[in-house]
Write a structure and sequence with these properties.
The chain is mainly alpha-helical and 152 residues long. The protein has 3 helices and 3 strands; from the N terminus they run E-H-E-H-H-E.
Length: 152
């Protein structure tokens, strides 16, 4: 279990200064960066010190969980549309490579290069971007259901 210690002077320290129903981005970044090395841990616990008011504690708990649940939804939506985009690009790359076989000169080379560039971009996206997004999704799922403890 990973335990992250957070000290707050008031609820306003944890909320966005323009909208108190949004988690402060600095706090969200701190929580996320503190958890990056703990992806192998089963549970994450946030240990928050400095909020004696029970209503503020409940509000902050809901705020943290909803923030990371919305991140999970956002990444799931990106993954869904990214898969469609990859299929379309793969078909385009294959089509460009097939078209390159029909020409015999500079045009043939241009279509061949363009086709392989498109195919390489898909492979790069799968190997690097997609893996990072999956790691972030796993972390956000853990944070969306993390245990939050309050101490005075």
């Amino acid at each position: 279990m990973e335990k992250i210690n957070i000290k707050l002077d008031s609820l306003e320290d944890a909320t966005n200064k323009f909208n108190n129903e949004v988690l402060n981005e600095e706090l969200a970044n701190y929580i996320t960066s503190s958890c990056l090395h703990s992806l192998q841990k089963e549970r994450i616990t946030l240990s928050i010190k400095g909020l004696p008011n029970i209503n503020h504690q409940e509000q902050l708990s809901k705020l943290i969980h909803s923030h990371y649940q919305s991140k999970v939804k956002q990444l799931n939506k990106i993954d869904k549309y990214d898969d469609y985009f990859r299929v379309i690009l793969l078909l385009l790359g294959i089509l460009l490579i097939i078209i390159s076989e029909q020409f015999t000169s500079l045009l043939s080379e241009l279509f061949l290069i363009a086709g392989w560039v498109v195919v390489w971009e898909i492979v790069y996206d799968i190997l690097f971007t997609s893996i990072k997004r999956k790691r972030d999704l796993k972390l956000y799922k853990k944070l969306a259901t993390c245990e939050i403890e309050f101490f005075n």
